[in-house]
Amino acid sequence: MSSAERYRAAGVDLDTLERAKARIAEAAASTRTALARGRVGAFGGMVRLPAGVQDPILVMSTDGVGTKVLVALRAGRHDTVGEDLVNHCVNDILVHGARPIAFLDYIAGAHVPSNTLVALVEGVARGCRTHEMTLVGGETAQLPDLYEPGHYDLAGTIVGVVAEREALHGDRVAPGDVLVGYASNGLHTNGYSLARRILLDDLRLGLDAEVTELGGRVSDVLLAVHRSYWEAVYPALPRIHALAHITGGGIPGNLARVLPQGCGAAIRTGAWPTPSLFAFLQQNG
Known about the structure:
- The chain is an alpha+beta fold and 285 residues long.
- Helices cover 34% and strands 17% of the residues.
- It has a 4-stranded mixed β-sheet with strand order 3-6-4-5, covered by helices on one side. A two-stranded antiparallel sheet has the order 1-2.
- The longest helix is centred in the middle third of the chain and has 17 residues, at 114-130.
């Protein structure tokens, strides 16, 4: 028995990884910017700091897309969750005023088909190209003893840069500042355990079901790509005192992270459009 056959018998399909490797490398190469150094497939990813950033500070964040991957698995659509991942991470460092320059992804699973692996990385690459940063590396691990066959987890790490004097920490916030909110387009990458239970388990809706109250198919609504606020917010950074990325914990759990001690916030809850999915979940949950 060959070594590849021994691995396959143990649940690790090396052939699947090899089939995906060339297309994954192609996707990563498509994100290369002028800051990139080294080559695709090296042991470590390298980027230069952009010129003109005075006293640069590196800003880093790691996150995942949670159980949204279970919706992708059930729908057989894996080309969007990679973009979700990138956009989530971009928003996290945008909070500190940072410009993204590099990204690394991590995919772990069991018996994940090569076309699924490629779709995941192509989604990550699409998000990287949108934000003009390089996918400098990543890891794909077949772990049959940890995951159900066909299942996977997706996570990523982003690196950004900001001039030290321009970094946002929340210390500029003062009474009288105006609080401005940017609307979401859905759940983004949070709340999927509850949403799946309500829609798919309790209501027994199929992912292909058209639901008038949701404004479309269940799968399309649940897999709507996490909105990136980069284009809307970055040009306004010189006038911004603080930012909060509203994810798990909602407004109370995230806005408080950038408010100085003794400073509160008055919020008009009717000031933004509520996604139809939120109202539907509240009515049926």
